């Protein structure tokens, strides 16, 4: 009986040591991943990175992580060719392959979201029109307020947002009033297709929705390298 108790004590001790070593290793790896993402993406702040699954060390041996979550701010993308900072970037990476002697990590699949403010969208391509929150009723229809300054005419309209081709946010004004010019002339100035580039490779736009603070982009993709 004493021998059995001693054996159980040793197993508990070694088990505790293994768990402790595993947690130290995963914390070290999370710091290194965050450092690489910050450097490669030119972020002012280090992102928060969480490697999921236990044990971590056996995942490393198999060169595949169950999943990784990352949260960051200040990721620079291009909207209509203009640099724009996106905030509240949350990405979930699944089945992450460790490649090139652990120097890169590529996810089989990924989902996420990011926010662009109305001011940044306005500066990126509205050209004579400013975007703003249109209230809860319009937001439920995925519409924003559009304040337009045309020649001799100022209008307040509402535009619907939708994603096209996995990389473009399209703005289409609803219910144009009667004007002394052709509708296509007006739409040429107020409807916009804002192409978004510079997202981590493999991520595409799935849909966009609006709230009080701006436009939330929902993302998904495959073979995604967050730090690539």
Automatic annotation (TrEMBL):
Q: Which InterPro entries match?
A: DUF2993
A Pfam family this chain is assigned to: LmeA
**Name the UniProt record assigns to this protein:** DUF2993 domain-containing protein
Species name: Streptomyces chitinivorans
């Amino acid at each position: 009986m004493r021998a059995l108790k001693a054996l159980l004590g040793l197993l508990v001790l070694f088990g505790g040591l293994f768990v402790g070593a595993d947690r130290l290793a995963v914390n070290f790896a999370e710091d290194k991943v965050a450092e690489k993402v910050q450097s490669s993406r030119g972020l002012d702040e280090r992102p928060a990175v969480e490697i999921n699954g236990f044990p971590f060390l056996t995942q490393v041996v198999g060169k595949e992580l169950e999943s990784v979550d990352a949260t960051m701010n200040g990721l620079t993308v291009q909207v209509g060719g203009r640099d724009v900072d996106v905030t509240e970037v949350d990405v979930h990476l699944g089945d992450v392959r460790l490649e090139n002697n652990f120097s890169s990590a590529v996810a089989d699949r990924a989902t996420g979201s990011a926010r662009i403010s109305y001011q940044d969208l306005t500066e990126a391509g509205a050209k004579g029109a400013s975007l703003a929150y249109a209230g809860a009723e319009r937001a439920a229809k995925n519409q924003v307020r559009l304040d337009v300054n045309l020649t001799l005419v100022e209008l307040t309209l509402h535009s619907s947002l939708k994603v096209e081709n996995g990389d473009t946010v399209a703005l289409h004004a609803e219910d144009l009033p009667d004007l002394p010019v052709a509708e296509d002339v007006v739409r040429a100035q107020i409807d916009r297709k804002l192409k978004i580039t510079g997202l981590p490779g493999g991520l595409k736009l799935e849909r966009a929705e609006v709230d009080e603070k701006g436009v939330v982009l929902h993302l998904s993709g495959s073979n995604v390298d967050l730090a690539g």
